[in-house]
Amino acid sequence: MKINKILAVAVAICATGGVWADHHEGGHESSIKMIDSSTFGIDSSEIQSIREKMQAAVDGNFVAGNIILVGNSDGVGVLETVGTQGPDQTTPMDDQTIFRIYSMTKPIVSVATMSMVEDGLIAIEDPVSKYIPEFANMVIIDEETGETTAAQNEMTVQHLLTHESGLIYGIFDPESSLGRQYFQAGSLRFDITALELAKNLAALPLRFEPGTKWNYSRSTDVLGAVIEVAAGKSLDVILKERIFDPLGMDETTFYVDQAKASRIANPIHGDMGDPLDVMPMLSGGGGLHSTTEDYVRFATMLLNGGEYNGARIIDQSTLDRMTQKFMGDNVNRDAFFFGPVGDWGLGFHLQPIPGADNEGPFNFGWQGVGGTVFIVDPVNDFFMIYMAQVRGGPRGAEMDLTSSQRAVYEAMLD
User: Fold this and answer.
1) How far is Cα 388 from Cα 391, in angstroms, rounded to an integer?
2) 60, 89, 359, 402: which has the fewest C-beta neighbours closer than 10 Å?
3) pLDDT of residue 23
4) pLDDT tens digits, 74-93
5) How far apart are CA 86 and CA 90, in angstroms?
6) Torsion of CA 326, 331, 336, 338, to 10 degrees
7) Left if phi > 0, otherwise alpha if psi is -120 to 50, otherwise beta: which for 59?
8) What start and end residues bound the annotated signal peptide (predicted)?
9) Are 270 and 77 in contact (CB under 8 A)?
10) CA 75 from chain center: how many Å?
11) Crossing angle of helices 105-118/292-303, nearest 10°?
């Protein structure tokens, strides 16, 4: 059985476009070191089943290609890629394909924020108005009547980290009066800076009292602007200094250099921005592009309690704080994606692992609207990354960012 598992890994490597690069393009050693999939309790038949589901997603015209990876601090036991980088393309996806990771930007910005907390540059209890004065004296809107009343609670950095700020995402709520105000305030513009956007949003009412409800929102975009002010540096520089350089994530950027254009994944459904088109906006909520190989570095760091290859990004105690339940029983869950299940930490989802209840233990991570997701499970000692590039399109794919998590757990715990 062990020999079969090793052979299965070897076949998978060959089937996905050749041997994986030994070195990262920027000169670093690759973060991907293949190990036996039995490390994760996954055998060759289970790998084949996962691959068949990935192939079905391609054959069914749900995605042009997809990648799934399971690893830990010892190495990567499962690495499967199926399909191409985009429609009408022949280049297969691989660990160096560049994806728009959208909201998988949020955990990176949240970790950078908490590293600044460790350095005393900011505190999660700080009012947002300390850094962006326009957020003082906010008002709450009654969306049925349009009337506004003065907010009783002050929005804090913690509220931005936990999506309890009272802000919304206009793009996910386009028919509401507040959603329309967000569009008018430039919430979809990239020709303004994150700080300019934050100031525009500060001029609008909040949907609810900060700290009383969870609502997915532009909170992390505002957080990006806040830490720019706190650090006196632009967000790309903050992330480079605090995360990307120490981890060797030299493929993770807000915009992509023209020389790397041939490596960009493209959607088979929906429209996505051009990563080559450099704009003023550095979106902390969804602006980064990355590769599977680069994101392995970030995920491994989290699984290792804040450290990767001798580079400590945050302390274990800080990460423990980030993965505590912050919604609790007093926060309204009407808009929470997972209903009564799970919770939210300081920048991560918290979902019970199989067999656990809502008291945990949890895995943590987050996803991107473009078809990507990562989870970190310290109890079962693994992380998973799934990458595809799609915006909308038909539903019912056998493999996507949700079913990939289920497929890995079923294989691992079977």
Assistant:
1) 10
2) 359
3) 42
4) 999 999 999 999 998 999 99
5) 8
6) 70
7) alpha
8) 1-21
9) no
10) 21
11) 40
pLDDT at residue 10 is higher than 80? no
Using DSSP's 3-state secondary structure scheme, residue 29 falls into strand
Phi, psi of 289 (to 5 degrees): -120, 145
**In 187-276, which residue ranges form alpha helices assigned H by DSSP?**
194-202, 219-231, 235-239, 245-247
- Percentages helix, strand, coil for the chain (3-state, rounded to 5) are 35, 20, 45
H/E element, 139: strand 139-141
Measure the CA–CA gap between 328 and 138, rounded to whole angstroms: 24
97 pLDDT more than 70: yes
Element (H, E) at 65: strand 65-72
- Residue 361 predicted with pLDDT over 80: yes
User: Does the pLDDT value for residue 19 go beyond 80?
Assistant: no
Beta bridge partners of 150: 139
Which amino acid is present at 224? G
Query: Which residues, other chains included, contact 409 with Cβ-Cβ below 8 Å and sequence gap of 6+?
Result: 353, 354
The string of DSSP codes covering 325-366 is --STTTSB-TT-TTTTS-EE-SSSEEEEEEEEETTEEEEEEE
- Which domains does the chain show, CATH number per domain? 1-94+393-414 (no CATH), 95-377 (3.40.710.10)
Of 148, 158, 134, nearest to 219 by C-alpha is: 158
Please check whether residue 75 is in contact with residue 34, taking contact to mean a CB–CB distance below 8 angstroms.
yes
Give the single-character DSSP code of 205.
P
32-68 b/e (C-beta count within 10 Å ≥ 16 → b): bebbebbbbebbbebbeebbebbbebbeeebbbbbbb
What is the average pLDDT score of the chain? Answer: 93
Buried b (16+ CB within 10 A) or exposed e, 337-360: eeeeebbbbbbbbbbbbeeeeeeb
Alpha-helical runs (H) found in 185-234: 194-202, 219-231
Instruction: List CB contacts of 111: < 8 A, sequence separation 6 or more.
Output: 243, 302, 313, 314, 322, 347
Which amino acid belongs to residue 88?
A: D
Of 254, 275, 258, the closest CA to residue 266 belongs to: 275
Structure tokens at 292: 């599977």
Which helix (H) or strand (E) segment holds residue 72: the answer is strand 65-72
What pLDDT is recorded for position 349? 98
